[in-house]
Structure formats: structure tokens, C-alpha cells
Amino acid sequence: MKILCNPLFFLFLGVCLLFLFRVFFIRTGLIYVTKRCWRRVVDCFHVHQFYRVPEFNENMQENRLYCKVSDYLHSLASLEDSDFTNLFTGKKPNDIVLRLDPNQVIDDDFLGAKVSWINEKIGGDKSHLRSFVLKMRKTDKRRILRPYLQHIHTISDELKQRNGDLKLYMNPGGEDHNERWRSVSFTHPSTFETIAMESDLKNKLISDLESFLKAKQYYHRLGRVWKRNYLLYGPSGTGKSSFVSAMAKFLNYDVYDIDLSRVVDDSDMKLLLLKTTTKSVIVIEDLDRFLIKKSTAVSLSGILNFMDGILNSCCAEERILVFTMNCKDNIDPAILRPGRIDVHIHFPLCDFAAFKTLASNYLGVKDHKLFPQVEEMFLNGATLSPAEIGELMIANRNSPSRALKSVITALQTGVEWRRSASFGRRLLDGSGTRVSPEESDNNSAIFSAENVDTTKDFRKLYGLLRLKNKKSQSFDLSSGQKYL
Ligand SMILES: Nc1ncnc2c1ncn2[C@@H]1O[C@H](COP(=O)(O)OP(=O)(O)OP(=O)(O)O)[C@@H](O)[C@H]1O
Ligand SMILES: [Mg+2]
Q1: Which of 192, 238, 361, when mutated, tests ligand 1's pocket best, judged by the most ligand atoms within 8 Å of its CB?
Q2: Is this complex scored with an ipTM above 0.90?
């Protein structure tokens, strides 16, 4: 009984009880319920302000801020405290990425103020419309709103820069107007370093892109839309698509790849454009094929309007438009006039300088005793596309000598191949460009631009070459052609 009168006993009992409470609260998770209730109580004494960041604006264009907020929130450690998150595999095989489930709340602190975000799905479960809603105390609003939004911009830009997280958007076509663009991560490995191209030209193009990036005020002063149109033209397998990737990576822009065969009409094309975002490279590949064969539902004036930027003036700016073609000879001059195309870039077949870049990139060889022989062959007019040479080098990457020998054989073969092809009709123009389908349709299917990709032909040829090499060192082109 005496012990009950001892204050130390009560102190000890109190500590024990507190400890047990704590263990009980943490073990059972009641701590979270308590925290939440406490927060609700505190919230009752504050007036809040809400800001919605919808995924699309009233023109149904993607809201860039939504993407930035999404990137920012998904980088927060407090994402793990959210009640419901989805788990996905990341870029690396063992990476696990957390994604907020709809209608979940995520908390954040900024300059001592507490804010929360709700990942809302507008219009029920079947809806595609999403938004983030920011909730902050009115008393904090004036102090933190602007710096907080600026902070989100900065962090999301840094994240994008660090992760190289670019997106490739494709138009799937079809009826679903909410899904004009479908995106995947843009992982094309080409950069300006890996592209074999005359170094002066490459440097000029890089500085052209750099000066475009700095020219916002200049374009606005002239009353022009801040955009630049490039035409990349040259034979198949010379690096046009790879160059687009290099541009996008250099600029850190997303890529919108418009498949003209899936565009239903001119207004569909307009809507596609309206739904592209600023800081993007918009690409139309093989424009010559669509124009010559008229295999797209988009009219010439639809394409011209797009190139002029009349439509773009009502959309976001800071964008690059790129058109690729195999040959621009038969193209309506209206398409190519200055203003519609700002920069024309020719992608030729390989010369010796480009070959050396490829040898260095693919084989790690800067010099070799077979180089003079290869150089002589180029000087004598032999040539292949960089894609063709790249294929041979990849196939023989373990033995540079074998790779170079196979390139020499292929160069010889290529000369004979092209010579034999030119007996009947001219199939290649001066720069090695394939002629149009109309010009070549009486010739063998091998050279028909619409059916045959030179690279694929060459792979078949090369497959044959390897088979034959096992039996004998010589390669009979005429017999090879029978198999093509
Ligand atoms: N100039 C080059 N430098 C380095 N690699 C190249 C070059 N040209 C082509 N290649 C390689 O060849 C392959 C095909 O190139 P790419 O797709 O860029 O050619 P393309 O000109 O777009 O052809 P197409 O007209 O058929 O679309 C790629 O894997 C690329 O790495
Ligand atoms: Mg291409």
C-alpha cells in the first residue's frame, strides 16, 4: 500500500503506459488514423484554397504543367505514404516505380508550409480526364504559391534532364478522339556523336539548333511563329531517322511521329497538331512517298498549312518540324519553298570520311592496313549506305579485319550491282538516290522504291554472301540476285 503513495511509482507507471500506448499505436497503425484525425481537426481552423491542374486545356491540348506536376509528385518520398500506389518495373530490370492511384492524396512541405495534392479522375472510373488538385492554406498562399510552382518547374526540368526522359508520341488513328496520341518512352540510341556526317555540316546544324533555341524574342519581333522546319532527304539507310533522334536528344524535346496513312482528313491533321505540345520535334517520315502516291487522306493544302505554321500559331510554340524524303526531285516546289522549309539537309551515301567514323563507332578502329584499299574504292565511285556498312560491321564486330574485308567485297559487289542495274535504265541519280516508283516500276522488284528497302535487300545479299563465303571466297552477284 505504501508503494501506491510513492510518486516515483506513478511516474514509472505513466512511462510504462505511454510506452505501451506508443507500441500499440504504431503496431496497429492507429497512429496514422490519429494523425489524419488530428489534421482534420487542425484543418477546421484554416481556410483553404484549391488549384486544379487539368491534364488537357479547353482546346483539348495537353497541359504541360500537368506533366510537370506529375513528374514532380512521383519524385517525392512521401509518395510511399500514400494509401494506394501502383507498382511498375522501371527502366532498369530491377527498378520498381511507384505511381499514384486515382483519388489518392500526397503531402508535401514547402518553405515551412504544408500542402497536399489529390490525383483526381474527373467524371468517374471510365473517364480519361485526369487532374491534380493542389490544396493549400489561404494564409500561405501569397507567400508560397508562385515560388512553389516555380520550384515544381525547376525540379521537373532537372528530372527530365537527368533521366533523359523523352517521349515518343504516335498517332494510333481510329475512332477514339480522346486518344489522338499514344506515347512510349523515347529510347532511340542515336546522338550527334554516333552519326557519321561531315563534321563541318554537323557543327553548322548544331549551331543552327542552338541559335533557334535562343531566338524567341527575335521570332516574336518579326511576328513569326517560333518554329523551324527541316527537310532531311537522301537514300534509304543514310541516317535521316537517326538524325531526328539526335536532334530530339540534343534539344531535350519530345518527338511526335505523324503517320500520314492514319490521318483521316485535314481536320484530323489539325486536331493532331493542336494536341502536340511546346518543346517538341514533329516528324513526318517519307513525305515524298505520300505525296507521289497520294496515299494519304490529307490534302496538299492541309500539309502546306501545317508547314506554314498558320495552325501552329494557335498552339504552343518552340517546336521543330522535320520532314524526311528519299528524293525531292518530284515534289511540288510549293512544299520546298523558303519559309516552308527553312533548312534542307542532304544525307548522301557513304564516303571515306563517313566510313572512318562508322569504323571507329562500330569496331573501335581508327586506322587499319585495309583503309587505303577502302579509300581507293570510294575514290573510284564505289559506295554503300551507312546502314549497309553498319550491318556488315555489326555482323563482324569481333574481327575488324573480317569486317573491313566484307565491306570491301560489298563495295565491289555494290559497284557491279549498281552497274548491272544501270544497263536497262538509270536507277540511281547522281547522289545515289533511288528514283521514284513511277520511274522504276518497269524494272526489277529489287529497285522498286515502294516495295524494297535497300537495306533489307542488302541484308539478304549479305546473308547469301556469308553462306557462300563458307564454301568459297568469291561472291557471284548474278546468282545472288535470283534469290532477292
Ligand atoms: N550517317 C549515319 N551514321 C551512323 N549510323 C547510321 C547513319 N546512317 C544510317 N545509320 C545506321 O543505319 C540504320 C538505319 O538508319 P536510319 O533509319 O536513320 O536511315 P534512314 O535514312 O532513316 O532510312 P529510311 O529512308 O529507309 O527511313 C540505323 O541503325 C543507323 O544507326
Ligand atoms: Mg527513316
Answers
A1: 238
A2: yes
